[in-house]
Structures are given as C-alpha cells and as structure tokens.
Design brief:
- The structure is a homodimer of 260-residue chains.
- Chain A has two domains: 1-103, Arc Repressor Mutant, subunit A; 106-254, GntR ligand-binding domain-like (Four Helix Bundle (Hemerythrin (Met), subunit A), Up-down Bundle), CATH 1.20.120.
- The first copy, chain A, is mainly alpha-helical and 260 residues long.
- The longest helix of chain A has 26 residues, at 229-254.
- In chain A, strands 1-3-2 form a three-stranded antiparallel sheet.
- Chain A is globular, with a radius of gyration of 21 Å.
- Helix content of chain A is 62%, strand content 4%.
- In chain A, helix 5 runs antiparallel to helix 6.
- The first copy, chain A, has ten helices and three strands, in the order H-E-H-H-E-E-H-H-H-H-H-H-H.
- Chain B binds a DNA duplex (30 and 30 nucleotides) through residues 6-11, 23, 37-40, 63-65, 73-77, 79-80, 95-98.
DNA sequence: GATCGGTTCATTGTATACAAACATGCCGGA
DNA sequence: TCCGGCATGTTTGTATACAATGAACCGATC
C-alpha cells in the first residue's frame, strides 16, 4: 500500500526513494496509460483497494494522520481521498468525528441487489437497443466459452473462483459499455463497491446454481444480439434477482439471525 | 450566496460580521435543527443552490480563489465543496485544471430519464411492497387534491408552476421515503441535480399533458396503497418515460438540431 | 508565415500551522 | 454509588505558504 507520487515532496525523501513516474512521455504508454496525475487520486486508489481487500475492519476508524504517516503524504490528499470514497459508498463520514470504513448490514446489502437488478436490467435493454459492436460480441462469445469449460468438468476447483469472476466481469462490462450511459456506469460502480462478502466470496461453491447463472449469461447475450430489448431486460433482472436470493440464503444460513 | 460560518475565522471579521450560529444550544431548534456544522458543508449547499439556480453559466470555470473571495472563506472548504459537487454530478473536474459547471448535452439529459424510470419504478414497487405509512398517505392525498384543484380551473396560470412542482415533489418523495432505501435516494438525487432546464422549466405549459401526468400520480398512489408492486412499478416507469418523451419533443422543438 | 522553443504568469496540488470540537479522565457533590 | 462539571489530550476543520503544473506570450528559426 504505497501511493504513486507526483509533485511536491519536501520530506526526508522517503525511505524507499519513490521514483516519480510523473505522467508518461508522449510515446510511452500508448493506449490507456493515463497513470495517476495527482497524489489525491493515487491515495484514493490505494485506499479503495485496501478497503476492498479487507485490509481494514468493517467499522474501523480511518484516522487522517495515521493514514498520512502510513502512506507518507500529508493529511491533505488523505482528506480528499476519504471524501471521495465517501461518495463512492466505501466510507462513512460524521462531521466533527472523521471517517470510518462503512459496514453494510445484511438488509442494506440485500437491498443493493434491487438497485443492481433495476440498473443492469436497464443496461441490458439499452445494449440490445443500440446493438453490440462486433468486436465486443466476439469477446463475449469467448468469455461464454471460457465459462462453459468451467462447468464442462462437472465440478468446481478452487481456481474456478477467479475464472468465473473474470467471465462474469467481461460479460457485464460488455453490456454496460454497449449501453453507453456513463451515469449508469457510475451508479453501478457504487453497487459493486462492497468489500469481501460480495458475490465472489460467498456464492462460488454451489455448482448447480452457478451453472444456471451462467446459462443466464448465454440467454442474456443472445437477447442482446437479437436486439430484443425487453427480453434482455427481463432476463438480466431475473439474473441479478437470483443472485440476491442466493445471497440471502447464504447469509441467513451462515449467521443465525442478526447483523453479520 | 453566503455560507453559514462555524469555527475559525481569523480574518478581518468580514464586512457583515457573521454572527456565528455554531450548533444550536440544547433547547433551541428542537426538531430537525441539524443546521450546518462545517464550513465545507455550508459552502457545498451554497454552491449547489447557486448552480441549480443558474447563477453560473453551463461550462463556466469555477476558480477556487475567486469563489473563496466571494464566499469569504479560504480555498480549503471551497475545494472540499467542489469535490463533493463533482460526486453529485453538478461539477466537472480535470486534474490539473480545476473545476467547471457541468453541462449535459441533450442526449445525456435524455438518458438521465432512463435511469430515473428504472430507479423510480423500483422505488414505487418497494413502496408498494412495504406499505405506506398512514400519515404519509394523508399527505399524499392532500397533495393529490391540491393538484386536482390546479387542473379544475381548466387552464394554467403562472403560479401553477410552483404549485405543481410542489405537488410532484411531495408525491415522489413520499414514495421514496416509503421505499426506505438510502442508496436509491442518493442515486436519484444525482438524477435530479440538473440545473434549470429540468422538468420544472420546460414542460409546464401543456395543459393536457400535465393533466395526464397528474392522472398518473393518482394511479401510482392507488397502486402503492393497494400494495400492487408490479403495477406501481410499471405505472411509475411509464410516468417517467412520458416525461422523457415530452422533454425530447420540447428540446427538439426549441433547438433545431444541435447541442442546446 | 507557421512552428518550435523557452519564459512568464495564473491556478491548482500539497504541506503545514493553528483553532475548534469531541472524547477522556478526574474531581466534587448529592 | 452515581451524576455532573471542569481540565486535558487527541483529532478534525480551516487558513495559509509554497511547489508544480498548464496556459499564454514572445521571439527565433526553418
């Protein structure tokens, strides 16, 4: 956990002498180089990842000075980052008392899926109406095929967790990209910003359920390709809804009946 | 446009000697006093209102020092406020070049309504499923009645603009409150954060259309009260969709074929 | 005449100093 | 024993100083 470091470092130069990547010259990093321009951005990325990976406890306080020391920057970019992460829903803020890692109780977590269903449903419909790019279609087909191979084995091995997550990500992002609605993207990102106990860590053991979920992927993709907007929307909504139900079962199965 | 002023003012005391409301004593402001605790918050509110009221031009740059002078605070709370408004979608940010008032082109504006339709539809369904509070139901009925009286005259006068906006706001907020999903609220707020040319300023002349829109309100309310979730969702979606269509007509009617 | 290079200026990004708010612990009183 | 008030320390909020970036301007060269 160390932020990239642009601009301004009148310090002891730091133990590990950070190499100042700055912004790439004109020739390096041709495609999506973008890199990080601002310390605040860099810190935001670092903290987001740390929180998503569970490096902080759920309700843990995030003290500015402490983080500043750990990341070897001043409080200023830390504050900016925390403010931003608050907007992203990862962090909570109480006016004169600072920031803490947000903890969604079970109900709020479940409620998230209602929003995802509505928004991803909309995304699927828009994608179907606009029509998906040939290149993207090819990517989707490849991803679907990779998914099929996971299930062809007839059982799951531990490496399949990441594989399925990847397939899932490719497909959903292809739909979103085709929908071409930046605001929709931003809002869904907030829904995804849920550390650990998100999809990836709970649901990947139930072979039968997972296979049905992948069947959904096939049908959604088909509907999008056929430009069947209403059908794509319905399928996507049902797809997400089934995740919600499955997750609720898992949660209620694991924790007796309280907030996790 | 002047922010409330808590804490810390080692300045010339300001021309108008701000009276330091601080946080209300224990007895004053009994109910929802909350007031503003932080300069940054206060500045955020001030700027949000100013932008929404059109006090800044669409694409206008928002220079930190300038605003700081105008609001008689330092750049620090200004920066925090701008950062926050960026998350709310009112302001745009480019890393080393600062903030500017966001301008939605016609397409993006229209696209907003797709999201509103999906989210408000969800809200209506959740409200129907949860059931609306008696007190809220009464408020809604009163609002519906106020709306009816607007149309009973058979024509619109200019004061009806604000009246209808108020009725509309009460009803939609009642639904959202009943839906009881904070994330849904936040996301819809982003959709509403569109200066001027939002509903209120364009559509309020067409008597027939407006009356149909208010009929929708009646039916949506009825569906929610009867706990008919699916119907409430469909009606709300159609309701918002009709706003989208009407707005598109208005825009295309007004501006020939460019970005407004 | 247009383009490239460097210089200057305006504006943003970061660090830091200081003031106010919250939290804690102590003490006295009921 | 329990409660309320005061002193203390810690942490946040704001102001400000300074560094670095981007834009504008200008002159020189092709």
């Amino acid at each position: 956990m160390t932020p990239a470091s642009p601009r301004h470092s009148p310090r002891t130069a730091g133990a590990a002498a950070r190499p100042r990547p700055k912004r790439g010259g004109s020739e390096r990093d041709p495609g999506r180089g973008a890199a990080v321009v601002t310390l605040a951005q860099s810190v935001t990325d670092t903290l987001r990842q740390a929180i998503m990976e569970g490096q902080f406890q759920p309700n843990e306080r995030l003290q500015e000075e402490l983080l500043a020391e750990r990341l070897e920057v001043s409080r200023t970019p830390i504050r900016a980052a925390l403010h931003g992460l608050t907007a992203e829903g990862l962090v909570e803020y109480v006016p004169n008392r600072g920031y803490s890692v947000r903890r969604l109780d079970a109900d709020r977590l479940i409620a998230t899926f209602d929003i995802r269903a509505a928004l991803e449903g909309l995304g699927a419909r828009l994608a179907a109406e606009r029509g998906m790019d040939e290149a993207l279609q090819a990517q989707c087909r490849a991803a679907l095929h990779r998914g099929d191979r996971i299930f062809a084995k007839g059982k799951l091995i531990s490496a399949d967790r990441d594989r399925f997550a990847e397939v899932n990500a490719v497909l959903h992002e292809a739909v979103l990209q085709t929908a071409d609605n930046p605001m929709l993207n931003d809002m869904l990102r907030v829904c995804y910003n849920i550390p650990i106990f998100s999809d990836r860590n709970v649901l990947w053991r139930d072979f039968g359920w997972l296979r049905r979920s992948h069947d959904d992927h096939h049908r959604i993709f088909e509907a999008v390709c056929r430009r069947e907007g209403a059908r794509a929307e319905l399928l996507m909504r049902e797809h997400v809804h089934s995740v919600k139900l499955h997750m609720r079962e898992q949660i209620e199965g694991a924790a007796p009946a309280g907030r996790a």
